[in-house]
Amino acid sequence: MLLLAIDAGATKTVLRIATPSGDVLAESRGGPANIATSVEQAAKSMEGALRSAIQTAGLTEDMLHNGEVKWIAAAGAAGAEVGGRPEKLKALFPYLTIFDVRTDAYTSCLGAHGGADGAIVAIGTGSVGYAICGDRNHRVGGWGFPQSDEGGGARIGLAAVRHMLAASDGRIRESDLSVAVRHYLQELGLDPMTWSVGASATDFAALAPVVLRTAKNGCGAAARLLESAGKDIAGLLDALLKKDGFSEMKVVFTGGLATELLPWCPQAVRDKGVLCQGTSLDGAMKVAMQRACLT
Amino acid sequence: MLLLAIDAGATKTVLRIATPSGDVLAESRGGPANIATSVEQAAKSMEGALRSAIQTAGLTEDMLHNGEVKWIAAAGAAGAEVGGRPEKLKALFPYLTIFDVRTDAYTSCLGAHGGADGAIVAIGTGSVGYAICGDRNHRVGGWGFPQSDEGGGARIGLAAVRHMLAASDGRIRESDLSVAVRHYLQELGLDPMTWSVGASATDFAALAPVVLRTAKNGCGAAARLLESAGKDIAGLLDALLKKDGFSEMKVVFTGGLATELLPWCPQAVRDKGVLCQGTSLDGAMKVAMQRACLT
Fold first, then answer.
1. Residue A294 contacts by C-beta under 8 Å, 6 or more apart in sequence?
2. CATH number of the domain bearing residue A70
3. ipTM of this complex > 0.90?
4. Same domain, A209 and A288
5. Which residues of B touch A198 (CB under 8 A)?
6. Do B144 and A194 touch (CB under 8 A)?
7. The CA-based dihedral angle spanning residues B66, B70, B71, B72, taken in that order and rounded to the nearest 10 degrees
8. Residue B138 near residue B240, CB atoms below 8 Å
């Protein structure tokens, strides 16, 4: 029996093979694997990473199919909340004895608290609040951009572009922020007025560092924008902990923007935070181990 | 000499052939023609419409190329503000003696005021403010969704989805609006929480009628959302008329959502409105006529 843990993210895949006792045999990386966007693309990324890990571990590809090894796998996958997608993904891996597909919010939360109960608020390109309490779990936000992902980098970048466009139009006054966003785009050789037509969440999120820098340099408009994002994060957390039995949970702030955005969140939000114990991949490995124990 | 006017819109093309004195010989329709999205697709839609109009007018396709007829053409094209696109489009129509490509905002404004100076605020899926004063013109907003198009149908639909998602998460209270949006999507067999992942501006705009209906039935949340859209329209108009020499302009409200949204705009906005005299196609024909007179 071997354990397989997969962190299937929107920008990359990370995969780990371990023994039932938890000894890591290999880790590898693969391409994007958001199963809401494309199950086929995600499967391709995962298979690429799996082949590479098998090689690193000194195993052969035969051992995936010949029944010699029982594969107990678990994935935390971006987009797994979209109906039917986990089932579609599982069907593409018939050689895995068990393949447990969860949302990456679930595995991140499990990993962050070392398998114990707790809550996370992830702040990266998007945002999501997630909490696990025994066999109950609860999620707030993270419904995608631009409709949700409040407080995430893409929403911050979108607000910055709106501010710059309104200033260019003369609808509001120019600020250090409007000037900084315009210059940033111009220096990349882009037209600030039309650049954002068809821009992706990732494109908008690239402007978040510009906002953070401008706010640190004393721009009131940038500071207000970040405080508004901080209030959005507080709103996520409040709704998350309001649920029965969840109010005393410890909270881990994860994601690439968490450290930078937390100073702009209300004090009550910051007071809740504890240190992170592990990643979404660690969480997926915990799921695989649980499944292995039940087998 | 023959005149050719083209209204090249994001969803359809309308084309008219007329004599230099303005007698219409034929009108026809074609596919989508947003030159920001695809110049090639736009050219294909225009050529299809042109062939059909030539047939209706009793002309032959030879007459496009053999030099027998001088073609003076003008288009008001969606996306013409994107650098280099008008030039690219013109290059695909070498047989037109003159081909003047303007933004559809310009031709709409010219058409709306029968060729006289004036302003328009277009409120449809998107929104834009535009004004012409002699040889000066001024534009506010209309920089695309979700970053601009304030007060347009897609922005109203986006705000409605955000409201529904926040209510579903327990971040805010349920309202008649959150319930109506959820039911609307469920009745279409869609999952309200994940439907908007990858939804287009047109998809979001389909929710605007739900907001308008719910507001008319007395929902405060829907009313506040529309009042906020109305304030956005007021902001466009203020910035438009703030420019030197533009303050006393007459304003035409155009677009599929104008009539429904105007009651939610501040009184000062409504007081500015005058009746529309013509379409973007009429405006394009005026450009073609002006060019013909100068030839």
1. none
2. 3.30.420.40
3. no
4. no
5. 144
6. yes
7. 160
8. yes
- Along the 295 residues of chain A, how does pLDDT read in single tens digits? 999 999 998 889 999 999 999 899 999 999 999 998 899 999 999 999 999 999 999 999 999 999 899 999 999 999 898 889 999 999 999 999 999 999 999 999 999 999 999 999 999 999 999 999 999 999 999 999 999 999 999 999 999 999 999 999 999 999 999 999 999 999 999 999 999 998 999 999 999 999 999 999 999 999 999 999 999 999 999 999 998 889 999 999 999 999 999 999 999 999 999 999 999 999 999 999 999 998 7
Task: Give yes or no: residues B89 and B139 share one domain.
Answer: no
Q: CB B197 to CB A36 under 8 A?
A: yes
Chain A residues near residue B140 by CB distance under 8 angstroms: 169-171
Q: Are residues A182 and A234 in the same domain?
A: yes
Strands A71-77 and A2-8: parallel
Q: Judge residue A84's burial from the number of C-beta atoms within 10 Å of its C-beta, 0-12 exposed, 13-18 middle, 19 or more buried.
A: exposed
Pairwise CB contact (< 8 Å): A162 & B169: no
Closest Cα of chain A to B143: distance in Å? 6
Does A259 lie in the same domain as A142?
A: yes
Distance CA A196, CA A180 (A): 16
**In total, how many domains does chain B have?**
2
Count of beta carbons in the 10 Å neighbourhood of residue B22: 10
Mutate to test the interface with A, among B155, B169, B173, B228 (most CBs of A within 10 A): B169
Both A34 and A171 in a single domain? no
Q: What is the pLDDT of residues B239-255, one digit of tens each?
A: 999 988 899 999 999 99
Residues B92 and B141 in one domain: no
The strand pairing partners of B22, in sequence order, are none
**Contact residues on chain B for A170, CB-CB shorter than 8 A:** 140, 239, 242-243
